[in-house]
Design brief:
The chain is an alpha/beta fold. Helix content is 26%, strand content 26%. The chain has helices at 27-35, 38-49, 66-79, 151-168, 190-201, 244-253, 260-275, 297-301, 340-359; strands at 5-10, 17-23, 88-97, 108-117, 126-133, 176-182, 205-212, 230-234, 280-284, 306-311, 324-326, 329-331, 365-370, 378-383, 392-399, 407-411, 415-418, 425-432, 445-447. The strands form four sheets. An eight-stranded mixed beta sheet has the order 3-4-6-5-7-10-8-9, sandwiched between helices. A hairpin with a 6-residue loop joins β1 and β2. α2 packs across α4 (151-168), α2 (38-49) packs across α9 and α4 (151-168) crosses α9. 50% of the residues are buried.
Length: 448
Amino acid sequence: MRILYVFIFLFCSHTSFTQVTTIQRNPEIFEMANEVSSDRLEEYLYELVEFGTRHSLSQDSEERGIEAARQYVLNKFRSFESQSGGRLSSKIDYFTIASDGKRVTQEIRMGNVMATLKGSDPKDDRVFVVSGHIDSRVSDIMNMESDAPGANDDGSGVVAMIEMVSIMASQSFPSTIVFVAVSGEEQGLIGATHLAKKAKAENWNLVAMINNDMIGNSSSNGTHLRDNTKLRVFSEGVPLFETDEMASMRRQTNAENDSKSRQLARYIKEVGERYVDHLEIKLLYRNDRFLRGGDHTPFSREGFTAVRLCEMNENYTQQHQDIRVEDGVAYGDKVEHIDFEYLRKNTAANLVVLTSLVRAPSVPREVGIVISELTNNTQLTWMPPAFGSAVGYYVLMRETSSSMWEKKIYTRDTAIEIPYSKDNYFFAVQAVSEGGEESLAVFPVPIR
C-alpha cells in the first residue's frame, strides 16, 4: 500500500468500516508534481508567442500565424513520444469550417493538435481529455494581422499541456488521456465543438474533460488584487444536457449541487490541494463567467462531464487587447505579465488530478440509497466498478448545506448501513485502488 489510512473510531465491534481522517500523498504522484518546471513553462511560452499572432484565420508562413504555432506544438508533443514505449501518438486533426458571416468570413481549414497517451489496459476504454486553446486575438476579433501574443489567453493552458505530456509520457496508465490544443476558441468554440461532436459520434467513454483557459496571471486590474494561491474551477449544477429522466431524478433527490461536473470539481479541489502546496482551489457554482465562454461548454452540451480551470484574478487590460500604452497602462497579453510560479502550481494540479483519475478504478456501478422505510440510519448499496480493481470504497457524506464532502467512511464491502439520517445528509460512493487513488464520486439513486 502506498497510502496510509488513519482511523478515528470504529462504529461498533462487528462493523467492517471506519471513518478516515488522514490521507497521505502517494509519493509517486507527489514526485511527478514536483517535476513540473516553471523554467520549462517559461521557455515554451516565449517560443509560442514568437509566432506573432495565432488568430484562427491567420495562415501566414512557417514563422508566423496559427499553422506555424500548431506545428510547433505538434513537434513538442512528438519529441516526447520516444520515452512512451509507443503509447504516445501525436497529430493535427484538421477539419474545414464554412463561413458563418460573423466570426468566420470564408471557408477555412482549422486543426486541433492532439497528443494521445494510450492506456495500457486493452479492456479499459475510458478516456480523459485535457485542453487549452492555441488561438489568440486582439481588440478586434476579426483582426488577423496585428501581433496577438496570447501569452495567458491561452498560451498558459497550451504550455501547461506540453509540460504535462513531457512528464506523463514515460508513465503507464490503464486508461487513455488526450491532450488537445484546440483552434477557433475565440471564433466561437469551433475546435472544441468539433472534438466534442466527434467524441459523441464515435461513442468515446469520455469520463472527464478539463479545460485550462487562462491559468498564468495572478493579478487583477481595477481591484489591484495579487494572489497566486487560488485557482477557480467552474462547473455546471443543472446539466446543459439533461433528459427528462435525469431532470426528474434531480428534482426527486434535490441534487442540483451534485451533477457529474460538480463531482469532478470537488475531486479537483480535494486532490489538487492534497498534492500542491500553497494552492487553494475555489469551487465556482456556474458553468463560466458572465459574457464569456470556454471550450468545456461544447462537451457539456453533448452530455459529457466537463469543467473549466481559470485563474482567480483576471486582468482585462491584458485580455483581447491591442498591444499599446494608454495613460501609463500597458495593454496586451504579453509574457512579462505571466506569474510562472503560479502557472507551475496550476500545471501541477492538473497533473496530479489526471494521474489520480487514470490510476483509479472506474466509478462504482448502480449506487443506490434505500428509501423503503422510515429510519434514522442510512443504507447504501453498489456494484464493483467495470474497470480496474477496487480494494475498497469511500462512502462520502456532507450536510445538505455544505459544498464539500465532510466525512469519508472506508469499507471493503459493497453495501453499508451507517447511523446517519438520509434526510439530513447527502451521500456518494467512490472506488479506491490499491495505491489509494479514488474514482469520481457517484451520487446515489433512491431504491425501494
